């Protein structure tokens, strides 16, 4: 696992955006897996700036969704499809035709999950999957003790997750769905390259358990240790509990022509 310690969230966003740009220069039609929430926003902003400056052409890129609420109507502003369209697809100048995501309005939700896994495979697989991490070590909506071999499936949100997400629904927890579709850990591990960004002291324990702890379902993100190409980018605060922080800094500083990832 590659671990890169950066000064702050902006530096992390710039670093990962350049890695995505390098991928698009090699493979213009790459399938990018994206995450929602506030953590990846610096990545999308930096990548959008590169596209607008002409530093990279993203016109042939394709976008894949990590998770989705169940039951929100099409076009709801807080559906993850709407969020990805608003924060990624539209700023990069792409169209909805470039976008893959699970159907959270399907009558048969598990069938929709199975179809999404098939769609990702038919698309050639995800080239680079962006991930965030929860304070309990979850990735996507794979909460602690999720199977490390799990595929895309429906999950019930914990009360704490619904409380945390109420801020996106004007603080009204009654508007937060109880269920989501999420790529399983096994589905996530199918991607060719996994890139996890974590910032802030609140993520320090989860990052340390992910990078330096044992592989265990109680810390779902620890499954990244099993991946052939996983990169963890953290700011100084999120790296504060890493025993090998100095080693990771030295490895990064001494990598000539390091393109990230």
Throw out a few tags for this protein:
about 260 residues, alpha/beta, Rossmann fold, seven-stranded parallel sheet, three-stranded antiparallel sheet, 10 strands, about 15% strand, globular
Overview of the structural elements:
Belongs to the glucosamine/galactosamine-6-phosphate isomerase family. NagB subfamily. Keywords: Allosteric enzyme, Carbohydrate metabolism, Hydrolase. Pathway: Amino-sugar metabolism; N-acetylneuraminate degradation; D-fructose 6-phosphate from N-acetylneuraminate: step 5/5. This is Glucosamine-6-phosphate deaminase. The structure is a single chain. The model has no long low-confidence stretch (mean pLDDT 94). The strands form 2 sheets. Strands 1-10-9-6-2-3-5 form a 7-stranded parallel sheet, with helices on both faces. The chain has a 3-stranded antiparallel sheet with strand order 4-8-7, covered by helices on one side. It is α/β, with parallel strands linked by helices and 261 residues long. It is globular. It is 33% helix and 16% strand. The chain has a single domain (2-253), classed as Rossmann fold, CATH 3.40.50.1360.
Main pleated-sheet profile: 7 strands, parallel
What integer is the average pLDDT? 94
Share of helix, binned: 25-40%
The total tally of domains equals 1
EC number: 3.5.99.6
Family: Belongs to the glucosamine/galactosamine-6-phosphate isomerase family. NagB subfamily.
Catalytic activity: alpha-D-glucosamine 6-phosphate + H2O = beta-D-fructose 6-phosphate + NH4(+)
Pathway: Amino-sugar metabolism; N-acetylneuraminate degradation; D-fructose 6-phosphate from N-acetylneuraminate: step 5/5
């Amino acid at each position: 696992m590659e671990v890169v310690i950066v000064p702050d969230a902006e530096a992390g966003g710039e670093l990962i955006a350049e890695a995505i740009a390098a991928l698009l220069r090699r493979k213009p039609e790459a399938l990018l897996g994206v995450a929602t929430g506030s953590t990846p926003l610096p990545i999308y902003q930096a990548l959008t700036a590169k596209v607008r400056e002409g530093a990279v052409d993203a016109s042939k890129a394709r976008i894949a969704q990590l998770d989705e609420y169940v039951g929100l109507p099409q076009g709801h502003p807080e559906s993850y499809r709407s969020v990805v369209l608003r924060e990624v697809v539209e700023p990069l100048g792409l169209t909805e035709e470039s976008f893959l995501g699970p159907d959270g309005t399907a009558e048969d939700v598990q069938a929709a999950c199975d179809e999404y896994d098939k769609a990702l495979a038919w698309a050639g697989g995800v080239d680079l999957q962006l991930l965030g991490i929860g304070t309990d070590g979850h990735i996507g909506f794979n909460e602690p003790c999720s199977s490390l071999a799990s595929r895309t499936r429906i999950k019930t949100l914990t009360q704490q997750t619904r409380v945390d997400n109420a801020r996106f629904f004007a603080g009204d927890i009654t508007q937060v769905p109880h269920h989501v579709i999420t790529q399983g850990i096994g589905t996530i591990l199918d991607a060719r390259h996994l890139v996890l960004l974590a910032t802030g002291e609140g993520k320090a324990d989860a990052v340390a358990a992910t990078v330096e702890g044992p592989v265990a379902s109680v810390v779902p993100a620890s499954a990244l240790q099993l991946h052939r190409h996983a990169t963890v980018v953290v700011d100084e605060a999120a790296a504060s509990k890493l025993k090998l922080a100095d080693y990771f800094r030295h490895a990064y500083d001494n990598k000539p022509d390091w393109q990230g990832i």
